Amino acid sequence: MNRFIRRLALPLCFTLIAGVGVSCGKDKKNDNASKGASSGSTKEDIKVGAIFDLSGPTADIGTPYADGIRDYVDFRNASGGIDGHKLALSWQDFKYDPTLAGQLYGQYVSEGAKVFMGWGTADTEALRPRVTSDKIPFMSASNAETLTDPTQTPYNFFPGASYSQQMRIVLKYITDKNPGKKVVVGFFHNDSPFGTSPLEDGKKYIADHKLNVDFTAYPMPKGATDYVAQIGQATAKKTQYIIIQNVPSPAAVLATNLASAKSNIQIVCLNYCGNEIYVKKAGAAAEKTIGVVPFAPPVPGLPGLEEINNYLKAKNTDAAAKGQGYVQGWYTMAVMSEGIKNALAKGGTLDGPAIKAGLEEIKDFKTGVSDPISFSTTYHAGLLSAPLYQVEGGQWKKIEDPIKVEK
Fold first, then answer.
1. What is the rounded end-to-end Cα distance, in angstroms, of the chain?
2. 382 closest CA partner among 400, 394, 369, 370
């Protein structure tokens, strides 16, 4: 019995290891495998490696995202897999530690993983050279623009709009709303590669389009309990808009600090704080926040949720309860599976180059919760557009149809 199947005996492993040290490749108690990958299948399983942040600094959004990926694998396997091949998913909590991410990546690739599901910008950027050398199709929740160019990162993909594209969308929206006026913008960001990812592209967009925007960046240090000092600096500059590039918990602290200061600065979230977790944590302080939301909030009746809700019915829950991060994780795994399906349809060896070509064939993949997703041989981000939502009465409501900005 291979080790991917043996791990089925340990369904509680992720609960036991969350928040504690992980031994990579040595202690099988710390390995996890998806349900449904069976040696009784008539076709060989397709091995998938994955890392999730379940206990690190981005676990607030990382946990539902991971649930979405794992549940999609179970759903797909229960539906017959991909052309009769079951997905054998092995994963661990890497706690947003790039060093551990590298160890786990090496372990799962050595065990035969055909594709890899990553998580953040720090781990994805650190793994880029190895992913390229190993020819392992890699899809993560990082939407860094550096991952979109196949001449530089041929095996990296993501289904959303890049952080830089989201920044361009916001800057276009802000300047369109203030024609002929100077606009003062503060960019509050996670103090990490994830946080700074769209910074220079935002500055370049302002310069290239000669926008009348005063743009200042404010790091949000890890572990900070408030952002009062940064708010004071932004207020002194007469800042009108604050764009947040961070996960929900620190973004909610910032919103609460602004509300306490009775500030009228307009908050604009890029996608990882444009969700229900931010609204729940910020409470009344979240009201009127605008968000770039590539994957729509999972409200009842939204097209694209039927499949998810049918699966979750047996668990006595639904997509609305699971949240937006869950839906994004589900569809990220669905898009990777579509690339594998395209590769299998071509016949021949199912390897990295074949799956890469299969992903690049994806055109107008419909999710119902986003614009149709497409890749090409020249661009590996799935979306160039995203709608804007605003918090009204504690709910995200669409205020702008998808905005597309040419790169």
1. 50
2. 370
pLDDT, one tens digit per residue, over 334-381 is 999 999 999 999 999 999 999 999 999 999 999 999 999 999 999 999
155 in a structural domain: no
Distances (CA, A) of 208 to 168, 185, 197: 11, 17, 18
Query: 3-class SS at 66?
Result: helix
89 and 198 in a single domain? The answer is: no
Nearest to 302 by CA among 229, 398, 388: 398
Nearest-CA neighbor of 267 among 278, 277, 276, 142? 278
Question: Dihedral through CA 255, CA 220, CA 172, CA 157, nearest 10?
Answer: -120
Token pair listed for 35: 């349900």
Domain residues for the domain of 200 are 164-294+387-404
Q: What pTM value is reported for the model? A: 0.88
Number of H helices and E strands in the chain, helices first, is: 15, 14
- In a domain, residue 319? The reply is yes
Does 239 map to a domain? Answer: yes
CB distance 82 to 42 below 8 Å: no
pLDDT in tens, 241-293: 999 999 999 999 999 999 999 999 999 999 999 999 999 999 999 999 999 99
pLDDT in tens, 185-232: 999 999 999 999 999 999 999 999 999 999 999 999 988 999 999 999
186 shares a domain with 52: no
